[in-house]
Amino acid sequence: MNAVRNRHFFVTDVLFLSLAVYVTFVLRLERFDIDIYWRGMFVFALITVVVVPIVFRQAGVYSRYWRYASIEEVVLLTATVSLAVIVTGILSLIVAEVGLVNIHIPRSIPLIFVFLAVTATACPRLAIRVFDQFSLSNNKVPSSAESVAIMGAGDAGLMIVRELQRNPQLGMRVVAFFDDDPGKHNVRIHGILVLGGRKSIPKMATAWRFRKVIIAMPTVAGREIRDIVNICEQAGLQTMTMPGMYELIGGQVSINQLRNIEIEDLLRRDPIQTDIQSVRELIADECVMVTGGGGSIGAELCRQIWRCAPRHLVLVGHGENSVFDIHNELWTSRNRQGDSVGSDGRPQITPVIADIRFPDAMRAVVRQYKPSIIFHAAAHKHVPLMERNPDEAITNNVLGTCYLLEAALAEGVERFVMISTDKAVNPTSVMGASKRVAEFLVHRAARQSGRPYVAVRFGNVLGSRGSVVNTFKQQIARGGPVTVTHPDMKRFFMTIPEAVQLVLQASVLGKGGEVFLLDMGEPVRIEDLARDLIELSGYDVGTDIEIVYSGIRPGEKLFEELFVEGEEYTRTRHEKIFIAGNASSFVPNDLSSGLLTLENAARRRDAEAIKLALHRLVPEYHPADIQSEAITYEKLQRAKGGNGTSALRG
């Protein structure tokens, strides 16, 4: 269809520009009889219908989809026509001066012609846009269509309006806008009146007869979404929303992305400005390897790395089903997009089923594919499970990391990024302590190689496998009760795409031996999380579904901490990433002998010996105690308020 329209535009350009040339001469000469100027007019018109289409093609005018024309297209058209007329005028005057043909072209003709040429080329194109809008306004929405209001009269809200107008079969009619910007109140946007701010929604719902509100505010923080949802719930209105900023990356808003409010929306933070270009420059045309590629974090890492056009992406995982799923997803994307990298003209992707606990396998994989960057996301993460199976935590989290690092060092891997956890700070669990030892291994490798081998810590990830959110949803689906371990239990939460973007950003910042700490905002009470999920599911807490307390599980703390005693934290150039530049100084001198002790204890499945060996390597590892969280908050606030250069000591 685009090719047909472009051919049509070429024809209209030739016809209308020729007519515009004649009108230009008539205006200049102030008479319809051209007389002696007819040869000049013919030459000028001939040069015009040759030069203008050539310039249009080079500038991409013929590749634009004029049904969605905007100011950008109008500016492009005006600039291109002006350039083409300058070229036409120069060529015409040269022909007239050379005198090969006896022609007369007044010197003011190009100046007059440029305005008519813009009109002649713009009118057919903008007519398509006007006709499209007229068609939308005449789309007949079924009489049974549901009346809805949109909260947010910005770009996202306008996109939703256009989608609904183009698809009346969806059965929704937008009757009102709401926006907290007073400058938009009582004005019409796309013919729809902005009735006021969020607080006006309840009183307007009855008068305008809508029972559903679509929240079109993808960049606002979760507290704003929570407030709007509460206002709508009190008025008995249903709410829907569009994806947040991190979910929109790489895609466009469409009506298919509208969904009910989810817990991620209520916990959403202010949008983070990520330096995507620096990440793309790091990854483009490189071979990148991701361990744990089938897991929640690993899979999202693969998706976002894939968008940065690596030469080769190697997915390493132990679970064949999960690796198959992400490989199939990216392979389908590869064939659909037709990217231009790799031996066959597109990026390469290779799934590898391997266990990081086998050193020979890791060495063989790294030697075969020679990645320049390794993202190490493979780990056992479930605290209670690892308390019951401490040998698995050691062999996977500690020894697996050790074997992978040995392979990376032997094969000259340039960058290594290990995903750690806030549970590694003053750990009370085997899992947390095992990740702290894994951090030591990364620091030691960075010190030995002088390469940017780093660790990145963050908290709980919403939507990941084993997330408490999934557990709560399952309990709600069964009718309750929802079990919370302790009324004061708190955790830091991030969304999966948000966490992965910051991991990628940290990979660019790393120089070697650092720990990067992601700013996860304020911790969330798990009981509040449970209440929000129950209410979002349409139930009342205590009436429909009860919340019961089950007690703290082995290895759990009431809250997670952010800072290791003695680590010096500074703010990086990225506002949401802090760095402990002296992290490698905490590597125990007896790390090698301690690893040997740990390995022997794990091989024997001796839980007592494992915990004793962990305590010797990580002296702060101790049973679950209730600790003061005021210190950690004070540190984080001081780090946020600093100038980015002063160090904070634990």
Question: Could you walk me through the main structural features you see in this protein, from its secondary elements to its overall organization?
Answer:
The chain is an alpha/beta fold and 650 residues long. The chain folds into three domains: 2-137, no CATH class; 146-266, NAD(P)-binding Rossmann-like Domain (Rossmann fold), CATH 3.40.50; 276-649, Rossmann fold. It has 22 helices and 23 strands. β21 (568-571) and β22 (577-580) form a beta hairpin. The chain is flat, with a radius of gyration of 32 Å. The N and C termini lie far apart (64 Å). Residues 245-255, 338-344 and 624-650 have low confidence and may be disordered.
SSE inventory with pairings:
Elements: H1 2-29, H2 38-59, H3 71-98, H4 109-137, E1 146-151, H5 155-166, E2 172-178, E3 188-189, E4 192-193, H6 201-208, E5 212-215, H7 222-234, E6 238-241, H8 245-248, E7 259-260, H9 263-266, H10 276-283, E8 287-291, H11 296-306, E9 312-317, H12 320-337, E10 348-353, H13 359-369, E11 373-376, H14 383-388, H15 390-410, E12 415-419, H16 430-449, E13 453-457, E14 460-462, H17 468-477, E15 482-484, E16 490-491, E17 493-495, H18 496-509, E18 515-518, E19 524-525, H19 526-536, E20 547-549, E21 568-571, E22 577-580, H20 591-603, H21 607-617, H22 630-641, E23 648-649
Parallel strand pairs: 1-2, 1-5, 5-6, 8-9, 8-11, 9-10, 11-12, 12-13, 13-18, 14-17, 15-20
Antiparallel strand pairs: 3-4, 6-7, 16-19, 18-22, 21-22, 21-23
Helix pairs in contact: 1-2, 1-4, 2-3, 3-4, 10-18, 11-18, 13-15, 15-16, 15-20, 16-21, 17-19, 20-21
